[in-house]
Structures are given as structure tokens and as C-alpha cells.
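subagent[fold] <- orchestrator: predict structure for attached chain, return C-alpha cells only, no commentary.
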Amino acid sequence: MIKSYFITDPSIIGSTSLSLLESLPKIIDIYKPDYISLRDKNTSFYPVLAESFLSLKGSHKALLHGHVDLAISLGAYGVHVTSTQYDEIAKAKDAGLYVIASTHSLEEAEKASLADAITYSPIFASPNKGKPKGLADLKEIVGKIKTNIFALGGITTQEQIKQVETTGIYGFASIRHFKL
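subagent[fold] -> orchestrator:
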């Protein structure tokens, strides 16, 4: 069974600590994701949300999205860095964080090779994410990169999860699959 990685979005969990604390435990109970990243690009209250997020107990591994220093200071399990933050991977690793890096090409996957895992996207059609890479491209990347890879992008159904699983992938990541 491949690993599952829930990347949160305010459209699913809300944008306040209260909404996060109400919705996220339900999602965790239903889907039991292995990893969860708190992603909210628009809030000015991310540190407050991060504290609430990290207070949730469960078997999932909690990562902060794009906030290396905050992940270190709050004692998060790890951090998900963007494709513009590869230079922070070593710092995060030195601090003991588990690191997942966003990638969209073989070149980016190679640059992010110090990370514990990468996301590779978009695999299927996903809003505003460009042309899908498809399963053949994903399988090729899995064969070339030694880092654990999460397929990301447009994965919303069990059928799509089964399809990416056939590539030898470590796991799948999604926003829209994990909904109430």
C-alpha cells in the first residue's frame, strides 16, 4: 500500500484555528493520511494556524508548508518546501526535519535530491497547474530518481490512486481527494 499525503487547503479545512480543529480531525478519522501538510498561502495568521495544526494528535506526520524556521521553532515533524526553497533543504535536514520538496521536472527532482521525499506534479489535470505529465512520465521519473516520490496533481479518486500505484511510486499527495 502506498503512502498518502494530504496537503490542506482553506477551501477544505477553513482558514481559522476553530475551523481547522473542527474539520481536520474528521478528515484524519475518515482517510487516515500518513502525512499532512498545513498549506495556506493567503493567511497572515499562519503561525497561529500552525500551532493549532500541530496540537492535533494522530498517527500522521505533521509538516508545515513553506515555513522552515517556523517548523523548526514549533517542533514540527517536517516541512514541505516549494520549488523556490531548495536552498533551505539542508538547513531543515540539519535541524532534524523530514523534508518534502515540490518538483515539476526531472531537473527539479535532481536539484531536490537532498530531501527525504518529493512531490512530482501535475500527474492528472488539476486547476491552474498546466499540462498533466501523465503516468508514463511519472513511471520514468520513478525509475530515475532515488528519492521517495509522491505523485501529485488531479488525484481525486480511488481509480487514480490505483493507477499511480502501478508506477512503483512511494505515495500519492492530494488536496481534493481528502474532503468531507
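orchestrator: received. Logging for downstream: DSSP finds eight helices and eight strands in the chain. The mean pLDDT is 96.
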